[in-house]
Request: fold
Amino acid sequence: MKLPAVLPSIDFKYITILLVTWICSPARCEITSLDSGNIDETLNNAAVALVNFYADWCRFSQMLHPIFEESSNVVREEFPDLKQVVFARVDCDQHPDISMRYRISKYPTLKLFRNGMMMKREYRGQRSVSAIADFIRQQKVDPVKEMQDLEELKALDRSKRNIIGYFEGKDSENYRTFEKVANILRDDCVFLAAHGSLSKPERFSGDNVIYKPPGDNTPDMVYLGSLSNFDLTYAWAQDKCVPMVREITFENGEELTEEGLPFLILFHLKEDTESLEKFQHEAARQLIGEKGTINFLHADCEKFRHPLLHIQKTPSDCPVIAIDSFRHMYVFPDFSDLTVPGKLKQFVQDLHSGKLHREFHHGPDPTDVAPGQQDNQEEIASSPPESSFQKLAPSETRYTILNRDRDEL
Reply:
């Protein structure tokens, strides 16, 4: 049979709908469609929930639909209890309030929830049935390692953040709170527990939880709050597991850029821990009130040579402090001024006020010029280095990115 010279155009969206209908018969699929009426109840009652935030017009969303459906079928065979694992979806065009609530900036976005709490790290793995199913299996692995002997603590990896709990039994409310906290912070800390007679030497006045920070000579910290109070326990553990100054790598760069906050970055040589400790100390001392307005990061000079070149620096110049606003990069004038009271804080405040951007283009503000020099001060136009870390943002070949033309502060 001779084929026509011109094939009729194919409606990809229509084909996708047919495919989803075929794969997702009522007997097989259990994808829950979320709206403002059922979202809280559904997510709060699920130990683990994977939610697909999508838009029908987005071709990447269309491509993901049948994969997401089949992933649900595979996982449901292993975890049939809907209180254990839920696959759900939100049509962001139909429910913009939910989209805004969870700060969705691209389609499709796969967010992980635990007992109603959204995890910071969304799913960024391969978009295949096996990869998504494996991701859920990993989320169902017990995050708490049960110790068989307290001697195991001598072999603890002290380069990591460790939280150890000592409990009378696993069926207690205290341990259930500890386990719930461990599930949420499993990517940030190592959680261990001892029970019964093994834990008795450490339970002087009841169940006990301690934090062992990185470093062989750093002292332990004991949790003094109520272990039955989830909010207090979680707040304490989060403060210990998620440091104020985090390391940026090529693996977590996309995740950090999606938080939408400017970066205050210390570039330092890997072996230069002294500069990092100074930066951590001064960030906590001067800028604790800026948490939530800027991300405090440190980066390996050798690995991040390219951003350094953007600000006309090399690893031999490190340590170097800079701000990346996702439009431009600004250099802290002198690392030795880091410990001068208020210097680092003023640098960050000048970003928020727009002063850094303004002075890069027009020279120092008139108020910064000594009296008598105003007449001689010419307006100097300049071009600040372009942002380098914005290139770590989500790929346009996997997502439809929203709000691309974001203005700088």
Residues 13-27, 374-382, 405-409 have pLDDT under 50 and may be disordered.
